[in-house]
Amino acid sequence: MSKVVIIGAGIGGLTTALSLHAAGMECTVVDRVPRLSPLGVGINLQPHAVRELTELGLGDDLDAIAVRTAIMVHLDRFGNRIWSKPCGRGAGYNWPQYSIHRGELQMLLLRAVTQRLGDDAVLTGHALDSFEEETDRVTFTLRNSSDGTTSTLDADVMIGADGLYSTVRSQLHPGEGAPIGNGIRMWRGIAQWPTFETGATMIAAGSNSATKFVAYPIAPPTDGYSLTNWVAEVRSSDPQAVADWTMPGRLSDALPHFEGWDFGWLNVPELIAASDPILEYPMVDRDPLPYWSTDKVTLVGDAAHPMYPIASNGGSQAIIDARVLAYRLRTENDTASALRQYEKDRREPTAAIVEATRNMGQDRILALVAQRAPDGFADVRDVLSEEELAEIEASYRRTTMYDVDWLNARASWD
Length: 414
Hints:
Elements: E1 3-7, H1 11-22, E2 26-30, E3 42-45, H2 47-55, H3 59-65, E4 67-68, E5 71-75, E6 81-86, E7 98-101, H4 102-117, E8 122-123, E9 126-133, E10 138-144, E11 150-155, E12 157-160, H5 167-172, E13 180-194, E14 201-207, E15 211-217, E16 225-235, H6 251-254, H7 268-273, E17 279-285, E18 297-299, H8 314-331, H9 335-359, H10 361-372, H11 386-400, H12 404-409
Parallel strand pairs: 1-2, 1-12, 2-8, 5-14, 12-18
Antiparallel strand pairs: 3-7, 4-7, 5-6, 9-10, 10-11, 13-16, 13-17, 14-15, 15-16
């Protein structure tokens, strides 16, 4: 039975722990923060990720705290409808798409890990300093986040699930440099807000070629109100900011870009102003790596393939990584073969998604609406051709990479 250490207790790291446990392997999750708490804002889980969490026995728990996203709608900045598509079960998948608070998802995964693996399965307050591979083990040094003392431990396998600034990745690929920005600033927030549209609708207005606003509910409604997540994207010529998910943003910076964005059923400036705190983050990723793995070390999630938040796929791909990695470690003859096969399964598909999110095909088409109809429109077919409308859907397919029939028919990784 292999002993595995996972660096990072985010969505990817905790899902990896649950998947390894289901496959009969021991593991410990290590995280630098002294205490894990439900931080962040909203994310989406695509059906291909929801399937994996359901097969881990978390389907009912997810359904209790998340929203089954029913439809994705693109609008212009006046609220006129450009294009829409059904999501999850409405699109034919056997599993829903969920919109959920990222911190609540992390806490759900954490509870499952401690219940199934034990209270000592997650070691907080310790950061990875370095690691060294030996013939039969990985030896690594942890630094206590509170007093700076170090300790040396070992494992059969080390998994880097430590995010955008992964220490594991940086040791595998020294000198890589800072994350790569595309010039888009994002402000994010959540607020209790009157339920709009179907109550399970995600809307995206405008285009991030200039200014874009995304909003969707992330918890079941109460008395006509839903906890609503929003993202404001503005292309900027300012120098690239440091990518830190906890960096506070200023209302005075975000609001001027959305003056007059009132759709009748949703007043964008009022929703932004109702949120406290507001977070600011640059849209960044990293170039795909030539390899993720050695004989005893590999990467999952943002440590392996950070991507732009286009088509809501980053967290979902981390969950897929976790499940495939556990499957390969359980079924291959030795650790080195398992990590090579896992990388073969996952590295090229995720690199293709990184490239597709950089291409932003749907936003290029949406930007044409603002160019051709700057004062709005009555019928989008007076603005876009059928081929241009079809390209929006094709672009989403490229950034999720999962066909409905294929996913529904695919054998379980259990």
